[in-house]
Amino acid sequence: MLGDKKLEVYEDYRSMGITLKWFTPMAFFLLFFSFAWNGFLVFWYSMAFTGEAPWIMILFPVLHVAVGFYLIYYTLCLFFNKTNIDIAGDYLTVKHSPIPWWRGNRRVPTNAIEQLYVTEKKSQGKNGTQFKYQLRARLYDKNDVELLALDEVSPEELQQIEEHLERFIGINDEPVKGEYGRKKEDVREERPRRQGRPFSDPILGSVYLSREGDFFELKSEEMEIVSVTQYDWNDGNSDRAFQLLTPDKQERRVFLEQSQAILHLYQERELSIFETNLTRFQLDTPPNSILVKGVEYFPSHFKTGKYFTTGISKGLEVKQWFYAAKDRQSFLRVVNFQNTVTFYLGEKLQRSDFDDSLDLDQKPERDLETRERGWDEQDLV
Fold first, then answer.
1. pLDDT of 43-98, one tens digit each?
2. 5 vs 11, 19, 20, 28, 168, CA distance in Å?
3. Rounded to an integer, what distance in angstroms lies between the CA atom of residue 203 and that of residue 301?
4. Which one of 40, 57, 100, 328 is least enclosed by Cβ atoms within 10 Å?
5. DSSP single-letter state for residue 110
6. pTM here?
7. Picking from 40-49, 132-141, 165-174, which range would have the lowest pLDDT averaged per residue?
8. Which residues contact 47 (CB under 8 A, 6 or more apart)?
């Protein structure tokens, strides 16, 4: 597993960054070995030039000098280098820095990526069988490109990076021929849709993309997110519902309805069985109005799509009837999921109900170096 000291992952609703440190304990051994190797060469040449040795003595260790320079270069990379994998501006970029690495950088349009996967390559050497692993991208135009191949990264670590990228881009993981550690019949996870568009309100956009374990303050009350449900509707929008817990263990629910770049925010509660029976709602003939606690709700819209929540590895069919009061400040949401009908009564929240200083327990966004870099033609895939 990748430890926190080796891999850093952070994201917002517009971009994602993964920083992978090259350092391994092997760097200390190579540091000692490169000093010994190059120290011997310095001694050799000092003897050769001061003792007027024959030219063969000078030319013989030339290859050893090249190896010595490579050892120093590679050791410095292990100590100082990082690989930054960024998704921003509709591009996935891979950059090794601050010391340039010979395999170069990559820049791939995210909408061109069909699948990400890890491969294993075996080769026979003097020390027996060697294994090389790569993170690769299969594109819709049938091209296949290498994204990351470092000896310091294990196949399990590459698979973790693959999963982070697929979740953010919204790629449904499917078997790829030659993929390491996966069989064709393996069950793959269907991932909920990711909205990469910039929302009109960045604070609500951050709330929209918050996850289990994050915290935020609503109406001066701190709450922890304990469960997240996402509804991917067939019209391209995705709504999200959050189950919250206050410090005194009181349950709350927040529902965010998406309309393209605009988010509507509601606080809701699930109706009891007694209240549900009073609505007299029928799936085959939804009523033209529903009366709940003296407020009449009228049909607003009906949607079908997929339902994703914690513990479910595949999207399931869901239908939703949305009823709104005349003042549009309260609503009744009727959800049919696996032949179970659930009712949620909610009221619209104001932007001021949220604290601007949200603590979503996410690392702050760093400057993505690859956004500002002038890419050369050979970098483009």
1. 666 666 665 656 555 565 667 767 777 788 888 888 888 999 999 878 999 999 89
2. 18, 10, 9, 17, 22
3. 26
4. 328
5. G
6. 0.62
7. 40-49
8. 53
Amino acid letter, 281 = F
> In 3D, which of 16, 14, 26, 135 has the Cα closest to residue 78?
26
The total number of residues shown for the chain amounts to 381
Using only the alpha carbons of the chain, give its radius of gyration. Answer: 28
In terms of Cα–Cα distance, which of 86, 92, 132 is closest to 109?
Answer: 92
108-112, 147-151, 178-182, range with the lowest pLDDT: 178-182
CB 78 within 8 A of CB 24: yes
How many angstroms separate the first and last alpha carbons of the chain? 30
Distance of CA 369 to the CA centre of its chain: 18
Structure tokens at 124: 């026979």
Query: Whose structure tokens read 């591009």?
Result: 91
Domains of the chain in sequence order? 7-22+81-183 (2.30.29), 26-80 (no CATH), 202-353 (no CATH)
